User: Fold ISL3 family transposase from Guyparkeria halophila.
Amino acid sequence: MSEANLSALFWKGFRVDSYEVKASDQLHIRLVPDPDVIPVCSGCDHGTHLVHDVHRRRVRERNFAHYRVWLDVPVRRLRCPQCGPRRERIDWLAGRRHLTQAMVDWVEALSRFASLHHVGQLLGLHWHTIRALDHQRLRREVPEPDCSGIRRLLMDEFALHKGHHYATVVMDADRRQILWIGEGRSRAAIRPFFEWLGPEACHQIEAVAMDMNTAFDLEVQAHCPNARIVYDLFHVVAKFGREVIDRVRVDQAKAIREDRPAYRAVKRSRWLLLRNRVNLDGRQQERLDTLLEANAPLMTVYVLKEQLKEIWYAPSEDEARSRWEDWKALVDQSAIKPLKHFASVLGRYLHGIVASATHRLNTSVLEGMNNRIKVIKRMAYGYRDTDYFFLKIRAAFHGKVR
Assistant:
């Protein structure tokens, strides 16, 4: 392909004047204006041959073979009869960036599936340049969520940084679309979501699934008067594991410290007791059965953990309350203090537990999303710009097509 054809294909309005290979992977190309093409004013698209002045710009072009290509471009200011001195329009340049539009498109395409670090290594560009281009792409492509027709919400939190820094995410339960992400997990932190949603949309909300976060609960009640709170089974059972099973396991281990084999068996049984039985293999199930047969308190809390789950699967709210009363009666008969304390606290949240019989909602989708968020963070070795990070998350969970 001739230099003239090459210039017409990639750099409209210019021709290759000369080129030079520097080092082993640098190709520098010097361009000159094509005398057969009339330059056009960037303000009014008026063509004129009158040139006010010229300055040369060094811009980065897409790689050619193994070469990193740099262009030396003469950019003219025209004496436009309508606009006065105005820079000429060069469509293949990316505005005032030192990159061609083809290079910008390539960076954006690679950033969709590769980390900024690896894109920078491949193209030889600074991390900040790639981040700015990807941020620009996300702002352009990620649509503003549609708040019309929202009936059910999912709310959860995820770790933003180390040191107990959290963010809150809200998802449309039916469309599986992320509606909002904000820093913090307090009432003040999540209030902007309801302000964005607006009073009319808030009154249409029928149910909101969440963990037992009082801030979420109170803010939903304040803005969504018709919404039922639904507490997620996973979070309640996880809390039961931390506050009851773990506490009883530690206390039992201390009580039998002199019996070293039994002590080690109880001490190392944490995951056996916390995991669902269906997720244990045959050998692990045997170990669990042996442990529970030898330790009555552990047997009690383990059985009551399984029975607690049945409340969420009740066919009606009346049946859910009946199951709760049966479960609470068994707790009251036990002499296990952590269990009794947990039940007394859980009773305050009964309204959100029995509501699951009417609204079959849970935050398992958000729990899966949290794993994806961790992958996004690992790919970038963390994010300094939360706006960019939140856009990456929204782009990954754009929802179902209606």
User: Anything to note?
Assistant: The chain has four domains: 1-98, 100-141, 152-230+381-397, 233-358.
